[in-house]
Amino acid sequence: MIEDTGFSPYPDQEPSAQYQHSSPKGTPPLPSLFGLFAPILLVLLGTMATMVDAQALTVRSLKGGTEVVLVTQTLAEMSAGCWPVLTENREWQGHCVVGSDLTFTAALEAELGELEEAPSVLIIVGGSGRREAIDLAESVLTGKVTGAMPSRLDRSLEEGGQERRLGQPGGPSILRLEVQFPPVDDADRTAVEVLWTLLPRHLIKVSSGLRTRIEGDVGTLELSVDGDLGGHELRSLRLGLAQVSGDPSLEAEAVERVAKRLRIARSAKLEAVERAGLELLDLWRRGGSDGVRQYLFGPDGVTLERVRQAAGQWLPRHPGHAVFVLPPRHFRPRFAPGPQTSSMSNDLSAAILARPSAQLSTLVLRPVLLSNLTGDAEAAVLTRLATALRRSDNRPAYIAVEGNPPRLEMAAQTGDFPGLCEALQSSMADISSDSTPVTTESDARRTALRLMASILGLHAGGAVTPASVLAPGNLAVGGVAVDSELALEALEKFGVGGSPSRTALEGSVGDVARHRMPAAGTQSAVVVALPLGSGFPIPETIAELLPSRTARLIDGAVAEVLLPLIPGRSVMVIVIVREGEVTTLEEDIEKNWGRLFAPVTEEELGTLRREVAARVVTAAGGVLGRARVCAAIAAGSDSWRTPGDREMAALTVDLVAVNFELEHLAEAPDAQWTASGPATVSFVEQ
Questions:
Q1: Is there a contact between 232 and 173 (Cβ–Cβ < 8 Å)?
Q2: DSSP string across 582-625
Q3: pLDDT band at 467 (very low <50, low <70, confident <90, very high)
């Protein structure tokens, strides 16, 4: 026996020389022919193998309107036909008929024949001999009205937001970033899925230990993080996703390998025909027949260039939804320390909350005392300051002026609190030395409020100027920063507010406060100041109640309730405005006074609780909301509570306590009144 080892037993001859005698002269020997055509044969065999494993897709619309989607593959003895049905709960779900080569056609004919309406779509998955099922379906469904088509499934994701969930005690802090994928019928869908599998390798420098998975139309990235640095990890991860399209380590070989694995996985899923039929039906509802086509043949068209293009166009525009799963020590920031308060060397009051996980650095500046309770003049000065900030070279990314009380709000990226301080002080330098009086419009409401401010000791009678508003002794700063100590040092370093003011407010001394004064226009206004005997959230609940009661009891009247900062006193100020004479308005208020403060019912209080809870969380929630609370703490008008604590207090306010305060306000003997109205009205002291 001669064993062919691949070496010639004749060392002086070519390996094929021993076979030359069997070939005609001029004809290449058989082994040479085999060596010549072997690569071609291998390519053909590989192509045949691919063709054998491939699926075939046929889409056909029947005369009645039913769309038939037929997916066939070789070596499949079982088949499934699936279509959508509407349940008693008015929900769409898939119904399938499954059978073998011998039973499927008869079973499908029987099931379709019993339907009163033709389905909008029929998905058939099975062997290559199932093409006759299309003709069968058309013959059975002819003459039947096509049923309603299921609405296209919308599985869009809320993007750009963050959510916090409670994890296991002692467990790790986990960040999950859920990113919306392209629709199933989009040509970039499969390319993004391939990229998702490659991400852990290419983002290892940004986020080590990254894990990926795909669920429906959402891709999830998951990694363990430091609970206090989750925001930083999230920003790094999103930046890495936006830049991955240009990563030079993305290679064509890796893309081809992952695309091939994806194609094999999808093909294997079709082996379970019933499950495959339901999945293809779900794909059809999300993207029609193009969605099914992309699922079957999408991996074949994925290339490195396609992956880079999809990553560059899709990922930067879809930041995803972040979910932080935190153990109790990080999930409940109520146990974290509150803001650190301090008084600067120039008499500026400040309160800074340290939150390393915050996605922003924020600073809120507000005057402590207001000239007319609503702060119209102060708001005008802050608006001028905001304009100067927007024109500066180092202007913050976010600048806004808000009211009630008037305040200037700024925000920058995490860690840039010193930049906010520098920009603020450089813009305040010129404005804070301006002694030009601030002029505001005058009407009955503003006049009555100015009179009340004088009675309460807030207005000394002098003009309001930018210098008086921005005097550091009358300013309070609240902020959220990575480090409260460094933030307070930045406030001191940049001297926010300037030098301490050495001038007293101008005004007359010893004047008798006036209670009534005429005003231009046709409206009249009455302002009532009532001393409060309770704290949060009872005054806020009553403030939510009174405007609606006033509108119901006093025809044409509009009411607003203020809870201003009055040093040493807790006061509720009610402002009621109406067209007409002031005396008539006062009479109507006095006549309905008891009904304005009548006890509330449990049902009425339930609505108030929800409204107040939403209002206080909106004002105090988020990074800017916490900075507002810190500014109020620095001004002396609030104490530290988390937004969750405020919401809980508002939702559980006691009915007896609210009614007790209403009774106290209705009978308040030391209530103070001011009024203003048309100049033609004769004003007489009551």
A1: no
A2: HHHHHHHHHHTHHHHTPPPPHHHHHHHHHHHHHHHHHHH-HHHH
A3: very high
Residues 95, 83: contact at Cβ < 8 Å? yes
Residue % of the chain over a pLDDT of 90? 53
Separation CA 184–CA 190 (nearest Å): 8
More confident residue, 155 or 299: 299
Report CA dihedral (278, 280, 284, 290) to the nearest 10 degrees.
Answer: 180
Residue 336 has pLDDT above 80, yes or no: no
| Tokens standing for residue 535 | 């704290």
Whether residue 353 contacts residue 339, with contact meaning beta carbons closer than 8 Å, is answered with yes
Cα–Cα dist 497/133, whole Å: 83
Cβ–Cβ < 8 Å for 200, 258: no
Please report the DSSP string for 420-457 in residue order.
HHHHHHHHHHHHTT--PPPP----HHHHHHHHHHHHTT
Mean per-residue pLDDT, 374-382: 92
Beta bridge partners of 527: 575, 674
CA torsion sign for 492, 495, 496, 500 is positive
Q: How far is 244 from 606, CA to CA, in rounded Å?
A: 51
Cα distances from 541 to residues 133, 373, 544, 670, in angstroms, run 69, 20, 5, 22
Residues 217, 294 contacting (CB under 8 angstroms): no
Task: Report yes or no: 320 and 180 within 8 Å, Cβ to Cβ.
Answer: yes
Rounded mean pLDDT of 636-660? 92
Answer yes or no: are the C-beta atoms of 349 and 473 closer than 8 Å: no
Q: Which residues are paired to 678 by β-bridges?
A: 519
pTM: 0.59
- What are the φ and ψ backbone dihedral angles of 34, each rounded to 5 degrees? -65, -40
308 close to 175: Cβ distance less than 8 angstroms: no
**Mean pLDDT, all residues of the chain:** 84
**What is the per-residue pLDDT across 62-73, written as a single tens digit (0 to 9) for each?**
988 899 999 988
* Cβ atoms of 362 and 624 closer than 8 Å: yes
- Domains belonging to the chain, first-starting first, are 55-141 (no CATH), 162-269+298-328 (3.30.830.10), 339-494 (3.30.830), 516-678 (3.30.830.10)
User: Is it the case that residue 409 has pLDDT exceeding 60?
Assistant: yes
pLDDT of residue 623: 92
Q: What is the pLDDT of residue 33?
A: 44
Sheet containing 340-343: order of strands: 340-343, 349-354, 475-481, 360-367, 407-413, 398-402
Parallel, antiparallel or unpaired: strands 475-481 and 349-354 = parallel
d(CA 359, CA 342): 24
CB 151 within 8 A of CB 180: no
Q: Is beta strand 516-519 parallel, antiparallel or unpaired with respect to 67-73?
A: unpaired
Structure tokens that stand for 324 in this block:
């932080």
Residue type, position 73, single letter? Q
Two tokens, residue 317: 């525009």
- pLDDT higher than threshold 90 for residue 669: no
One-letter amino acid of 7: F
What order do you get walking across the sheet with 173-180 strand by strand? 162-166, 321-326, 173-180, 218-225, 211-215
Residue 360 CA to residue 480 CA, distance in Å, equals 8
